[in-house]
């Protein structure tokens, strides 16, 4: 009898063991785009609103709330009829589309002078090829305390995003690498690098490593510039793809770059007048067409 009981107990325990399902930990998907606004968030209206309310709870004095946002880089403007009439972009940036019900609500709140705060934040992903324009509207009550906020967003593509996504998709941002290792990586991708000392006239006066590569085409091209900023230990902590162009970048693309052989250099010098002439001719034609398309031309 005891033996039968032991067999039954063993069978039940095996049956129970077979019915136990393995537990898999569910991992949240990694967001494709994120920005830093007090903390890392996705550039969505609801998430940004929660991040702002986490630092500016309802009931905060409006001046204090404005100071908190300005410390994060926001530019704040109180509503006024003059701004609304003559410079509406000062309040609501072009490209930021608020839902119709939000626009109606803000129109009703104008009597309380809401404060429009705006900032452009780069996304954290490789090379920061997109930015998010964030609008935070602080809505006060009669006592000038924050009663509510509204949020609007707009995406902004970097003008050189195509270069990294189409021509250098394998090139990863060298943050976290020693600067010499980062320079080797950039130079292997065709960039030339040099150390640039801090300049007092620059808004950002930190020294950096400047990496340049020619993005050439038959009529000239562009020079893609990347700045690498390091910490005191010489580790790259920040990268910045320069948006603007410098004077005569297209002409520099047509001339020898310094790494060609004698024959290629001679060909570049010989073809330079032809390529430059075609470029300037096309530019003149485009300018003429634009002027002609204006109402009544120049009259």
Written description of the protein model:
The chain folds into three domains: 123 residues, no CATH class; 94 residues, no CATH class; 37 residues. It is 37% helix and 24% strand. The protein has nine helices and ten strands. The chain has a four-stranded antiparallel β-sheet, sandwiched between helices. The chain has a four-stranded antiparallel β-sheet with strand order 7-8-9-10. Strand 4 and strand 5 form a beta hairpin. The protein is globular, with a radius of gyration of 29 Å.
Quick synopsis:
The protein is of the alpha+beta class and 299 residues long. It contains nine helices and ten strands.
Percent range for β-strand residues: 15-25%
Query: Helix-strand pattern, N to C?
Result: HEEHHEHHEEEHHEEEEHH
Poorly predicted residue ranges: 1-9, 15-25
- Summed up, the domain count is 3
Number of helices: 9
Helical coverage, percent range: 25-40%
**If you compute it from the alpha carbons, what radius of gyration comes out, rounded to the nearest whole angstrom?**
29 Å
Provide the spatial order of strands within the biggest beta sheet: 3-4-5-6
Question: Which structural class matches the secondary elements?
Answer: alpha+beta
End-to-end separation: 114 Å
Number of strands: 10
Query: Can you tell me the overall shape?
Result: globular
Can you give the mean pLDDT? 85
Main sheet overview: 4 strands, antiparallel
């Amino acid at each position: 009898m005891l033996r039968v009981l032991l067999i039954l107990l063993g069978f039940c325990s095996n049956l129970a063991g077979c019915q136990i399902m393995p537990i898999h930990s569910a991992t949240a998907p990694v967001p494709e785009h994120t920005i830093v606004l007090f903390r890392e968030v996705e550039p969505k209206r609801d998430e940004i609103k929660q991040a702002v309310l986490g630092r500016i709870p309802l009931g905060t004095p409006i001046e204090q709330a404005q100071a908190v946002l300005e410390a994060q880089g926001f530019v704040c403007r109180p509503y006024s009829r003059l701004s609304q009439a003559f410079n509406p972009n000062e309040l609501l940036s072009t490209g930021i589309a608020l839902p119709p019900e939000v626009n109606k609500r803000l129109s009703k709140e104008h009597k309380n002078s809401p404060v429009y705060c705006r900032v452009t934040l780069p996304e954290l992903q490789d090379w920061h090829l997109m930015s998010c324009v964030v609008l935070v509207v602080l809505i006060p009550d009669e006592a000038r305390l924050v009663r509510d906020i509204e949020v609007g967003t707009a995406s902004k593509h970097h003008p050189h995003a195509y270069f990294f996504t189409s021509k250098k998709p394998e090139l990863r941002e060298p943050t976290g690498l020693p600067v010499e290792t980062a320079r080797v990586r950039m130079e292997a991708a065709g960039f030339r690098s040099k150390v640039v000392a801090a300049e007092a006239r620059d808004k950002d006066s930190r020294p950096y490593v400047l990496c340049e590569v020619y993005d050439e085409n038959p009529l000239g091209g562009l020079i893609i510039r990347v700045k690498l900023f390091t910490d005191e230990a010489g580790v790259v902590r920040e990268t910045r793809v320069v948006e603007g162009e410098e004077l005569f970048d297209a002409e520099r693309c047509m001339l020898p770059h310094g790494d060609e052989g004698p024959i290629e250099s001679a060909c570049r010098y010989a073809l330079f007048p032809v390529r430059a002439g075609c470029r300037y001719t096309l530019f003149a034609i485009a300018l003429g067409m634009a002027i002609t398309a204006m109402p009544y031309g120049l009259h």
